[in-house]
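Re: the 441-residue chain
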Amino acid sequence: MGRRRKNRTHLKGEAATTEPGVPKSFIIKHGQVGSSLTQLVHDMRKVMEPNTASRLKERKRNKLKDFLTMAPALQVTHLLAFTLTPIAPSLRIVRLSSGPTLSFRIERYSLIKDVLNTSKRARSIGMEYLSSPLLVLASFPPASPSTPPHISLLVKTFQTMFPPLSPQAISLSSARRVVLVSYNADHETVDFRHYLITVKPYGVSKRVRRVLEGATSKSSSVSGILDLGNEKDIADFVLRRRGDPGPDGGYESAASSTESVAGDDGDAVDLAGDYVGRNNKKGQRRAVRLDEIGPRMELRLVKIVESVPGKDGNVIYHHFVKKTRGEIAELKAQHAARAKLKKERRDEQERNVQRKKSAKVDASVKDGDESLDSEDMYEEGGHEGQEASFDEDENDYWDDDEEIEDDDEEIDDEEHVGSDSSDDEEIVRRPLKKSRIKNKS
């Protein structure tokens, strides 16, 4: 049996790399939450793919500060934190690394599985998440001097969460999903929707489209092949009116048979390039439809703070607490005083650190000078008593065996020569060290 070849399923080439300047996000749950809110976190990660940490795992001992500290090193620009309060679930959108922080109350929400279960046609989701979604902002008041500042900041926050759209550089096949953020001025809420872009043939009835595209119903025994076994003629299937048992009941008219999938000429477009799907080539006229795939949320803006969580910042907007101008000025003065005191303490700490470093350097230099003086004194004393120390330590390097061998050599020399003059010469040539040791012995 041959060796099985492993196929790599991860992204390759340009799809696996992110362009510089593209916003990245962390989507986490904070604190004790239920299973439904945990699933909502995973659904939101799918919405923000591929520029989010879809496999991020939170631990019970992880704090919100841990993610705020780690995010700048990974070039993360936004943090979405879901938590459960006694009143309702809440969502905080944090712009890293200096703020602002927008706090929302989740009034109502639906998961992806809930939306797909209520839809008429089942869909297999997968390849659509390889590209970023398109952002559509609807029903927001236009920018003007009379527009509340928190509305402009809200619009800016949602715009910076998704990659900017460049019509000249975008590929048509990469536009697969749409995120719709609409503002409800009557209830002061924000509706969050997620749609899938589908392209269908235009000017073709549903039955003809089923013949062209293939069968998708469960009654078909073979996938992609339409079952016409109960029909006498293909006209019975194509032109029969809806609900009629056979051709005797009449056929559809030409006008009804050519109705658009979307139902309006305004929904039909000419493709500017090749798109995903069968026969979706450049220049073909197609009907565009948006199918909701979830999740769905209704958000209410509660508060906007200038800084990130854990840091002292000014409250820009609060939905339930209203303050007068005098109270706002007093709060600003308090924040300014705290910031000034914090800066003074930081400066004082830096001065103390520099003072300690300089004192340590001076102490090390002083110790080095003292060690140099002691070495000079040691060298002067060593020159004066060098001979004495040499004479005293010579005995330590002498070996008794070597001394005995030298004595035997002297005896042999005396027997061989046999003269007094040779003894005197031997004594003269013998080192002073050996003679001294013999006398000691």
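The first strand starts at residue 25 and ends at 29.
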